[in-house]
Amino acid sequence: MRYYLSSIIRVSLFFLLAFLSVVMIYTTHQNSQVVQSLARRSLESTALALSMAAENALRRSGTGRETEIRDILSDRVVAYALIARHDDTILFHTNPTLVGTKLHDNDVKQQLAKGNVSSREITLGTGIPAYEFNFTLHHPDGSEELLRLILHTSQADMIVSRAERMWWLVGIMLALLWTAGLLLERTATRYIRLQAQQEEQKRLTLIGQMTAVLAHEIRNALASIKGYAQWVNEKTAESEPSKPAMGAILQGTGRIESLVNEILLFSKQEAYTIEPVGIAPLMDEAAGSGLTGWQGKTELEIDPGILVMADREKLLRTLVNGMRNAVDAMGGDGVLHIGVSAEGRWVTLRIEDSGPGLSAEEVPRLFTPFYTTKTEGTGLGLAYAKKVVEGMGGIINLENQKYKQGAILSIKLPAS
Predict the structure, then answer these.
(1) What's the order of all strands across the beta sheet hosting 407-414?
(2) Is the Cβ–Cβ distance between 53 and 126 less than 8 Å?
(3) pLDDT tens across 167-186, in order?
(4) Who's near 314: CB < 8 A, 6+ residues apart?
(5) In this structure, are 295 and 230 located in the same domain?
């Protein structure tokens, strides 16, 4: 259920961010287009106003018309202006030296044929962008001339450039938006996961408490059964037919007692006494308990000066169990390699056997409580080892060896 909730939050957040991103990009694009259109219309309006003023000046009689037209077209937005007749002869130019010359493009007739107004964007010979505006001047006598205005576009370009900068702002906002969205998704997912872990921990704690109570009651009842069975066994002669049965009862109660003790050990709340522990003497003590009756070969690779931060008794119990598992896997013969290496702030303890190794089916369930491949195992040894090693701030792993047959149990603990 929590997995689906996490997926729903992730998908919903993604679509929300995608929708907001599309809206912001579309809005910015539209605003940019509007600004470009307004800048062009501003140039057209300026050019049209100057053209109308020049035409009105031409319509008036008097000797000061040219001066008035020159004053009108001397606006700082005008790069240059000219008036030409049908044969392309320039009648007026803001540069007086060009009056009487002809236009190079020879398109006055074409421009006049287009109607009153036409415009286009051009590039001056200096490489500067400009705006060309062509306007048909109508004289009182019915003749027509072409007024051509070349306007600077720097102001309009500046406005458009500022509008284009909005893309940078939108890009930064989108980056911040997606970053915030990802952080929110991570936070929500982590919160859901923590809630699930807390509920699982509560459930396991309750199960552990129930298991401890049941195991305690079973052990009390088992103590009476075992004591009575031992008393009856002592009173029964070897020749009696019930003697083997009593031995089986004692063996069975012993196995149940061992299982109950391991359940109580696994289910109780652990308290750790973390202190510097010398690995070499601890390994010797563990070998003395875990390798009793071992007839195979044992190889040791331990630096006597290495110390780890651990709970000595719990680590000892874990090592003894690991050595016993390795011996059982080899079936009483083989090579057992015990090594310790320090690397940075970590110390790695290794117990390597030369047994058949682990099957693919075993690996995912190795540290699962009550899972065992032994006929007389309880399946709590590795589960307890994982519990206490992680409780001491370490890491435990069991896997097949890479370059030879057998399995390797590795325990990483903080160095002292």
Answers:
(1) 297-301, 335-343, 346-352, 407-414, 395-400
(2) no
(3) 888 889 989 988 888 888 88
(4) 270, 272, 388, 391, 392
(5) no
Burial readout 146-175 (b: 16 or more C-beta within 10 A, e: otherwise): bbbbbbbbeebeebbeebeebeeebeeebe
Which parts of the chain have pLDDT scores under 50?
none
User: Nearest to residue 131, comparing CAs of 66, 69, 50?
Assistant: 50
Burial class (CB in 10 A: 0-12, 13-18, 19+), 94: middle
Q: 110: domain CATH number?
A: 3.30.450.20
Q: Where would I find the beta strands (DSSP E) of 25-168?
A: 78-84, 90-93, 117-123, 129-138, 144-152
Domain holding 340, by residue range, is 275-414
Residues 189, 156 within the same domain: no
Q: Please list the residues that pair with 130 across neighbouring strands.
A: 122, 152
Comparing CA positions, the residue from 2, 9, 19 lying closest to residue 184 is 9
Tens digit of pLDDT for each residue in 265-276? 666 666 778 899
